[in-house]
Design brief:
This protein has helices spanning 2-28, 47-58, 127-136; strands at 81-84, 90-97, 102-110, 140-147, 151-158, 161-168, 179-186. It is of the alpha+beta class and 190 residues long. The protein has one domain (42-186).
């Protein structure tokens, strides 16, 4: 009789350990909702995603509004819709979103040295300054990858919003001092 009780306790203990291990492994995995190459539909955006987009729009200066209708109607075949600011320092890309029945701006990129910024981050700032601002606003570093021989591309993410930074290498060993060449914000909606 004592043997069967020990056996049942052992099986129960094994099952509990197995479930806990599964939870721990799941928690340690990639918690990113959106991977770099995956687009989502507009209806997949959560209320929190929309709030994050609104926060970025309100705290940035880039002449356009992310996830707003674009004023373009034509595009090149197999290319996104494109808008460019009069001074050429802001490029926007977008797609027709069936749920909205409109061409929506899904990406804004800042080019050159200008007054424009994303969350106060300008081209020409250091990577460390940008990282401090983004992490302070709850963005998490998704990836840092070499981009050619002279650049590093970094992607920060919060909800469905991604901020992409391309830095020019100053020091091969330390990314913190590298200078931002381009910065962009996007929501991968199609």
């Amino acid at each position: 009789m004592k043997l069967s009780v020990k056996c049942k306790k052992g099986k129960l203990c094994f099952i509990i350990c197995f479930v806990c291990l599964g939870i721990i492994i799941g928690a340690c995995g990639d918690n990113s909702r959106i991977s770099e190459d995956v687009n989502i539909s507009f209806s997949d955006l959560t209320a929190e995603d929309i709030e994050i987009v609104a926060f970025v729009n309100e705290n940035s200066d880039y002449e356009y509004v992310l996830l707003d209708e674009m004023a373009v109607t034509e595009k090149e075949p197999d290319a996104p819709y494109t808008e460019v600011s009069d001074d050429g320092n802001v490029e926007c890309y977008g797609f027709f979103v069936a749920e909205k029945k409109a061409i929506m701006r899904t990406q804004i990129n800042l080019k050159g040295q200008s007054q424009y910024n994303i969350l106060g981050i300008h081209n020409g700032d250091t990577y460390q300054d940008a990282k401090t601002i983004l992490e302070g606003e709850g963005f998490k570093l998704l990836e840092n990858n070499p981009y050619g021989s002279d650049y590093t591309r970094s992607i920060f993410e919060k909800g469905a919003v991604q901020i992409r930074i391309r830095t020019k290498k100053i020091n091969d060993e330390k990314l913190d001092d590298d200078t931002i060449e381009t910065i962009g914000v996007s929501v991968p909606v199609n």
